[in-house]
Write a sequence for this structure.
């Protein structure tokens, strides 16, 4: 699965860290933060067998930004 910025799909934004909070998987990239959506999350009844994993862009800040300098701060930010 490739996680690309929907606003800028050609941007080179490497994954810096992956973090699980509860049952959610977050991907922290250099310039942005995403929540990974599994096919089971999107289609729990499995009515659409073509359903693919996806991602949702949450923030336009990432590991290079001052805001989520550590995964601990990010966890607090997500839980709010």
């Amino acid at each position: 699965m490739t996680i690309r910025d929907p606003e800028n799909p050609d941007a080179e934004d490497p994954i810096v860290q992956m973090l699980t909070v509860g049952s959610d998987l977050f991907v922290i990239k250099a310039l942005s933060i995403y929540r990974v959506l599994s096919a089971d999350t999107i289609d729990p009844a499995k009515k659409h067998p073509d359903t693919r994993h996806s991602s949702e862009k949450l923030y336009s800040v990432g590991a290079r930004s001052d805001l989520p300098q550590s995964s601990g701060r990010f966890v607090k930010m997500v839980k709010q």
Q: What stands out?
A: DSSP finds two helices and four strands in the chain. The chain has one domain: 15-71.
